[in-house]
């Protein structure tokens, strides 16, 4: 059993001052430091001092791409005129050559960056053309077993790849289900999936929820209308692929009718505003999603590992989009953060995202010395302006184990960065 003492606590709902927490894999007890003096301490093997820190639940990245690791510093001819060009000239070149060992290395490196950013659960959308079969288990080995985090994984089925293998990989991995990992059914996007592939997926996937990019750029909608005479969401509905807690990433260009369909079909939309700005594809219409009661979660689309930057950028970009400083408030952001916890709670069958007894011990300790008065009333203002903007947790704990100990991370391989650089040399050589 471990303890964190003398800390402030905040879990996107409740705030406590000067408190302690006892935990193993789950949170066992929480109370004020006044009570701590009287509790039995002989079973506590580690005590972390949380003075001048805020304890929070580990964060979740609701949509990411671990394979983007090897794009850092990559130099390919790049002159995109459209979003499809960005895929053709960059991402599809890179993911097309990755093999199973590259997947492992990318996951370790990406996972380490997640830990530094306080992210303890990732919802990944994977692609690797060099190997398809077995890659999701490899990601799970790196993220869940070797680094001790949680992950929801899927392989992005598309007509670019061997479709039967994509389907097999998703179905095979969905059998691995425990409290730290689960499989969704990955699909790339409407514009890379034919009707016959959609039908095959529907016939074989059973009740696994899909995880797909939807209307990330206008190209996706234009492609669906030109080829099939309907919008992206209508296509997915007609192929009976919506529902059952599916994740639809982006939904930047959906119209009112599509939002209505989504609102009636039990899906979650994963927002990734920084990636949308980087790709210059537009921004999601959050008010449209909100009006149709579509629950939103938040990811970063593999653009780095910092999820608090997404919290900030979502807020700024929505205010700017609607040209109103009141358009998107703390309540909206908190709702989206809490939806993300709720989603993972339901999929993994655990209680995650609160500092309460019975919840999993996925915790981050963030040094913070408030320069102004801090209380239950203004805590989120401190978190938003003081912590999200300078985010650097000192301790990260997942499943009750310390995965970052006072900024130190224990790597599963001592030479993982050398191996990764060597792998990048081989990968980039294949592309040039
Ligand atoms: Zn994505």
Question: How are the elements arranged and paired?
Answer:
Blueprint: E1 2-10, E2 15-23, E3 27-32, H1 33-36, E4 46-49, E5 53-57, E6 59-64, H2 83-97, H3 100-116, E7 119-124, H4 135-146, E8 150-153, H5 163-174, E9 181-183, E10 185-189, H6 195-205, E11 210-214, H7 218-228, H8 232-238, E12 246-250, H9 256-263, E13 267-271, H10 273-278, H11 286-291, E14 296-298, H12 308-321, H13 330-348, E15 363-367, H14 379-387, E16 395-398, E17 401-405, E18 408-409, H15 416-431
Parallel strand pairs: 1-4, 1-5, 6-7, 7-8, 8-9, 10-11, 11-12, 12-13, 13-14
Antiparallel strand pairs: 1-2, 2-3, 5-15, 15-16, 16-17, 17-18
Helix pairs in contact: 3-4, 3-15, 5-6, 8-9
The structure holds zinc ion (ZN).
Outline of the structure:
The protein has 432 residues and is of the alpha/beta class. The protein is built from 15 helices and 18 strands. Helix 3 packs across helix 15 (416-431).
| Unreliable runs | none
How many domain units?
A: 2
CATH topology of the largest domain: TIM Barrel
* Overall 3D shape: globular
Number of helices: 15
How many beta-strand segments?
Answer: 18
CATH architecture of the largest domain: Alpha-Beta Barrel
Q: What is the CATH first-level class name of the largest domain?
A: Alpha Beta
CATH homologous superfamily of the largest domain, by name?
Metal-dependent hydrolases
Estimate the strand proportion. 15-25%
N- to C-terminal separation?
A: 52 Å
User: What structural class do the secondary elements suggest?
Assistant: alpha/beta
